[in-house]
What we know:
The complex is a heterodimer of chains A (195) and B (274).
Chain A: H1 3-6, E1 12-17, H2 21-28, E2 39-44, H3 54-59, E3 66-68, E4 80-82, E5 88-92, E6 96-100, H4 112-123, E7 127-131, H5 140-148, E8 152-156, H6 165-172, E9 178-180, H7 185-190
Parallel strand pairs in A: 1-2, 1-7, 2-4, 3-4, 7-8, 8-9
Antiparallel strand pairs in A: 5-6
Chain B: H1 2-21, H2 30-43, H3 49-58, H4 63-71, H5 81-95, E1 101-106, H6 112-123, E2 130-136, H7 139-147, E3 149-151, H8 155-164, E4 175-178, E5 181-184, H9 186-189, E6 192-196, E7 208-213, H10 222-235, E8 236-244, E9 259-263, E10 268-271
Parallel strand pairs in B: 1-2, 1-7, 2-6, 7-8
Antiparallel strand pairs in B: 3-5, 4-5, 8-10, 9-10
Helix pairs in contact in B: 1-3
Amino acid sequence: MRPTDLVRGIDAVVIGASAGGIxxxxxxxxxxxxxxxxxxxxxxxxxxxxxxxxPEVFSARCVLPVKEAEDKEPVQPGTVYFAPPDYHMLIDxxxxxxxxxxxxxxxxxxxxxxxxxxxxxxxGERLMxxxxxxxNQDGAAGLAAVGRAGGRTVVQEPGSAAVAxxxxxxxxxxxxxxxxxxxxxxxxFAAWPKG
Amino acid sequence: xxxxxxxxxxxxxxxxxxxxxxxxxxxxxxxxLKRRLxxxxxxxxxxxxxxxxxxxLHEPALFPALLDFLTVQVSEMFRDPPYFRALRNxxxxxxxxxxxxxxWVAGCSTGEEVYSLAILLQEEGLLERSLIYATDINASAxxxxxxxIYDAARIGGFTDxxxxxxxxxxxxDYYTAAYGKxxxxxxxxxxxxxxxxxxxxxxxxSEVQLVSCRNxxxxxxxxxxxxxxxxxxxxxxxxxxxxxxxxxxxxxxxHSYAFSDFVASDKIFQKEAS
Lengths: 195, 274
């Protein structure tokens, strides 16, 4: 699928990454054009008990507002949300954001699987799941759930990812709609319709 | 498609639980509930929520296990040390001005936070004239809370948190280690009342100066959150304090007007005077 086909009819994107994720997100998020109405939800595995600097780091480089998710916050279009450290981020009815302190999944809290599962329930075929570089299998099952719910599934090409483990695990779960090399990913983010 | 059938089954199961066992989960946030119930289905070998409902209605022995899936939160002692530091440095000086103190730990689960507060009050010389209400809906969690016995493997983390909270003593002053367990001192419990209380269905029961309810409200939907915050408002004395979890806020609540920020960064609020 070409980028313009991949993004058609998508209202929300869930993104999961761990090791090496900040570098690739630094290429992708700034590529999102102004006026984009899609909501982005990102789980990055980060050490707990440290205030996350991710929203500040990316705010300066993105045209869309970037913020840390708050519990019960109604989802806004054209906004980038990061999961806070040490909490799972889920999408609930509304759609609204929900946080939980439930057990870590694959040693991870926030967990990519938890975000992807809950978003697949709420958005169904209007959701895109994107798995990036990572050294843990958390996210592989979640991406499959996005696919089962009719959503679009994209994986960073393992050979071009900083750490291939997570993209490879995601591809082992089953077929995906697109496998994109790192240098093709910004094109996907630039393809979102404006408004 | 499965997800929409699940959405039909979910309120039916919660209604069944409410009618049969009088536990009300109907106001819990759906996304987390779904995740926990999916795990419960796996554990009990049920393919659908309807099957789980059938078993719950006809096998009462199953219910306590389900209750654990739905309610138990494993916390830590002095979780989020800056919260306890803010209580110690900013709230305790005002609590000192009361001749006697009442504190409510709402949704105390297995008790880690209750003992943390008891130790903090002890260090500040206030425990003697304090009464701590520790409430939860899960009887087996309350029993564990009352026992005050934790795996020795967790004590390292607890000690670290305690130290970062501005400790005036050593955590080891308050427990005895034996057979891989740490047993917390009975003297701490003299001023603690453990009680069954449901934030969904029960009312306020006493006037208190501090409510600590952390990482409980995130499991409730907005309607139930408003009910519970109303309970806290009604329970707190004028200018009383409310402590919430690091990522909880009053911003989306109908009761936000009843509280003002006291230590905003650590989610400590003060009830307005009026």
